Amino acid sequence: MDKSDLLKELRIDKEHRTDRSVRWPWIALLLTVVLISITAGVWFFFVESAKAFDVEAAAAIAPNTSRADTSVLQATGYVTARRQATVSAQITGTLTEVLIEEGDHVKRGQVLARLDDRQYKATLGVAIDQAKAAHALVDQYRAQLEQNNRDAARNATLAKQGLVPRQTAEQAQTLVSSTRAQLSSQQKQALAADANAIAAQVNFDYCVVRAPFDGVITTKDAQIGEIVSPFSAGGGFTRTGIGTIVDMDSLELDVDVNEAYIGRVTPNMPAETTPDAYPDWKIPSHVIAIVPTADRGKGTVKVRIGIDAKDPRILPDMGARVSFFEAASKTVNMIVPKGVLVPVSAVVKRDGKDTVFAIDGDRARAEPVTQGQIYNDMRLIDGMAAGTLVIKQPPVEMADGAKIKVKSGK
Prior knowledge:
The protein is of the alpha+beta class. It has four domains: 53-60 and 337-406, conserved putative lor/sdh protein from methanococcus maripaludis s2 fold, CATH 2.40.420.20; 71-82 and 247-325, Efflux pump adaptor protein, beta barrel domain (Elongation Factor Tu (Ef-tu), domain 3); 84-115 and 210-246, CATH 2.40.50.100; 118-205. It is 31% helix and 32% strand. It has four helices and 24 strands. The protein has helices at residues 3-10, 14-48, 118-161, 166-205, and strands at 53-55, 57-59, 71-81, 84-87, 93-98, 105-106, 111-115, 208-210, 215-220, 227-228, 243-246, 251-258, 270-275, 283-295, 300-307, 319-325, 340-343, 347-350, 353-360, 363-368, 370-375, 378-382, 389-391, 404-406. The strands form seven sheets. The protein has a six-stranded antiparallel barrel with strand order 3-12-15-14-13-16. A four-stranded antiparallel β-sheet has the order 4-11-9-6, with no helix packed on it. Strands 8-7-5-10 form a four-stranded antiparallel β-sheet, with no helix packed on it. Strand 19 (353-360) and strand 20 form a beta hairpin. Helix 3 (118-161) runs antiparallel to helix 4 (166-205). It is elongated, with a radius of gyration of 44 Å. The N and C termini lie far apart (97 Å).
C-alpha cells in the first residue's frame, strides 16, 4: 500500500462528521432533563418530606367489659376540683418565710407562709397599752364616783340638820352625776380601745398564712422577699397569691354532652369514667347534676360527674371519657365485643381499605383495620391494640410514614 492509500484510510468521511455534530444537541438536552429530574427529586425529598401535618391524637380504648350492652351515651370532659383556693395574705407585707412546695400535702390550719410582722407587732403593743390606760381611767372614775356618792350623802344629812347650806348638798349631788357621766364615757372609750387591740391582734395574726382546708399544693406562686397583697397593685410587681391548694377529695368531672342527647342523661344515673392517661382503667361514677344552661357556641350542656372511687392517680385537668348507663343490670355471661374503640373520624379509606393512622413518634403509620359497630362518636375496630394513639382526622393527602406534629392542649 502506498502513501496515497494510507492517507485515504485516515481521511474522515464528511457525512460521518456531520452525523456526530447533529447528535450533540440532543445529548445536551437529555442531560438537562436528567439534571432537572434529579433536582426536583432532591427538592421533594428535603422540602416536601419535611412538611409535618398538624394532627389531634386520641387513644384506642378497650370496650366496656362490664356494661358494654347498656351504654346509652359517651362524652368527653376534664377532671375539676370543686374545692380549691389560691391562698393569699389578707394584708400587704413582705414574705419572710414560704413553707410550701408543689405536691405538698397540708392540713387545715397548717402554716404556709409568714410575713414581716414588725410593724404589726408594734401596732399591737401600742393598742394593748392604750386599752390598759383606758381601763385604768375607768377604775379611777369609778373610785371617784364612790367617794362623791359618800360626800353627797354626808352633805345631804348635814343640810337636813342645818349644819351646812343646802347649796353645798346640791353641789355634791351634781358632782356625783358629773362623775357618773365621765365614768360611762370612759367605759365606752375603754371598749373602743379593746376593739382597736383586737383589730391589731387580727392584723398581726394575718402575718401568718394558714391552709384553709386539707389539700395538696398544686402551684407555688411567691418567694421569700416578694411583696404579697390581697389587691393587685404596684404595676404587677405585687403578688396576689402565695400558692394554690386543691382538695383532692372534691375532684369530679365536667363533661360536655351534645344537647341533642341531653335527654338521655338523668341525675344519679350510673356512669363509668375512663381517663385518657389510663385507657384500661374503668372508674365507677355517677351523674351529680345537669347544669341548667347550654353553650350556644358548642351546642352542648355541661354535666357534673361524681367519681365513686377516689385514687391519687386522678389529677385536676386530666382528660377523660365518660360512658352513661341505664339502670344497673346483671352482667353474667356478657359477650364483650372484640377490638378497640376509636373516634369515627379516625377510620379512613386508603387504597380501598379501611385504615387507621397510628402515631409512631413523629410519623404516621397506616394500619388496615376491620370496622365494627358504632357507639355514638366511637367505632369498634379490629386490628389494633388498646392504648395505641391514633390520629383523629387524618388529612386526605396523608400517607404512610408522613411526618406529623401532635397538637398540644385540651
